[in-house]
Amino acid sequence: MNLLLSAGLIFTFCAIAFCLYRWGNVVCIGVTPVKTFTFIAILFTSGLDVGLIMFPLTEFPVYADLEANPQYAFSNPLALEFGFWGFLIWSFYFLTCFYFCVLEPRVKFFEIPVVKFVNNVVIVGTCAFTAFLLLSNLPWYLPGIGDGESVVLTFYAIVFAVILAAVYSSTDLKYVRILSLGSTFLFLGLIVIMAIAAKVSPGEFAERMGMIGSYFGDLHRFALPIDDYHAFYLFWWFAWSIMIGQFTSRFVGGLKTWQVLGALLVFPSIPLAIWFAVLYSFHEQGIDTTGFLSISMVIVGITFVVNSLDSLVRLYTDNLSLTPTRLGRMQYIVGNVVVLCLLTLLFQLEFLQIQWVGALVIGLYFSCFAYILLVKRAEVAAIDSSPADRVLDFKATETAH
Question: What's the whole-model pTM score?
Answer without folding.
Answer: 0.87
